[in-house]
Amino acid sequence: MRVETIVVPDPGPGEALVKVQACGVCHTDLHYKQGGINDDFPFLLGHEAAGVVEAVGEGVTEIAPGDFVILNWRAVCGQCRACLRGRPQYCFATHNARQKMTLADGGRELTPALGIGAFAEKTLVAAGQCTKVDPAVSPAVAGLLGCGVMAGIGAAINTGGVGRGDSVAVIGCGGVGDAAIVGARLAGAARIIAVDIDGRKLEKAREMGATHTVNSRETDPVAAVRELTGGFGADVVIEAVGRPETYEQAFYARDLAGTVVLVGVPTPEMKLELPLLDVFGRGGALKSSWYGDCLPSRDFPMLVDLHLQGRIDLGAFVTETIGLDDVEKAFARMHEGDVLRSVVLL
User: Fold this and answer.
1) Enoyl reductase (ER) domain: which residues (predicted)?
2) What is the Cβ-side half-sphere exposure of residue 157, based on CA atoms within 13 angstroms?
3) Could you list the mean pLDDT of each consecutive 10-residue stretch along the chain, which spans 346 residues?
């Protein structure tokens, strides 16, 4: 990671220039940094961001200069086959700014992480990537809805369809897993079982709303989840790690006709092998959750309002606030499991 001077163009048609106030350090940024997503270097990292619209381009009417917004990576197109079927949360043609930000030294084009690139004082995005929310919320908290927290809450509520009285197991209790716990509690789950190999993370999961914890370094997680659910397995199991081993645990820890939700992001080389008869015989649903299957225009304002009402504590996800020069250290702390989220304040 290097801090560089960049050139940010004035917004063109359909674009917005945003003055970034805060941006979370997400594991997806680490994937970019390590070349795990693509090799379109150099990357402008950062995507869990909130800030104030500074200028808009021609044809932009949904936002205006001065609006406080959360940036998102699902700018709904309105025209693809998913949108035309009334499922914009699955939009297959989300768009980004057409113009490129560049390095001031040499003019090389930058690839913004998830089309956002918000580890910067200002960034250029498609206007549809800006979701206006109540400015009473702290930017450090609001920005986290732009990726990890929304992914976890949405995995429980939108993808998993957790309902009142359900049993839910969450495997992997980092930021996304803890957000899934918050979402399950918000949806009225009766039993929320947190599974992880780190006792510190399990303690935090209890603070976030888990009713039971399982240390899978010490205990077979499948047997433990079954024991805690009357021998049946959980109604919904959310896998927030993104590894074949933990996915297999999720598959066998669910009840018959239960739901498995994969929200952890695997790497390209990972493979999964399951007996096809078990897939058929156990019934239910195996789902992947993209961005918590969220619709930013619907979900971001709602969650901000719930936070401001005191019904969910988004601030609990912020472990530390840092400066732009500290992002490399934040990646190291993330790797060591010391933080839920480090948030860059600009």
Assistant:
1) 1-344
2) 20
3) 96 98 94 88 97 98 98 93 94 94 96 97 98 98 96 98 98 96 98 97 97 98 98 98 97 98 92 97 96 96 97 96 96 87 96
For 283: left if phi > 0, alpha if psi spans -120 to 50, otherwise beta; the answer is left
How many alpha carbons fall within 13 Å on the CB side of residue 32?
22
What does CATH list as the number for 6-146+313-345?
3.90.180.10
Amino acid letter for position 251 = F
Residue 307 and residue 141 in contact, taking contact as beta carbons nearer than 8 Å: yes
Residue ranges of domains in the chain: 6-146+313-345, 152-289
Q: Report how far residue 64's alpha carbon sits from residue 60's, in angstroms, rounded to the nearest whole number.
A: 8
Say whether domain 152-289 belongs to CATH 1.10.10.10. Answer: no
In this structure, what token pair is assigned to residue 200? 């510190």
Q: Which two tokens stand for residue 118?
A: 């918000």
Return d(Cα 152, Cα 201) in angstroms, integer: 15
Q: Judge if pTM exceeds 0.85.
A: yes
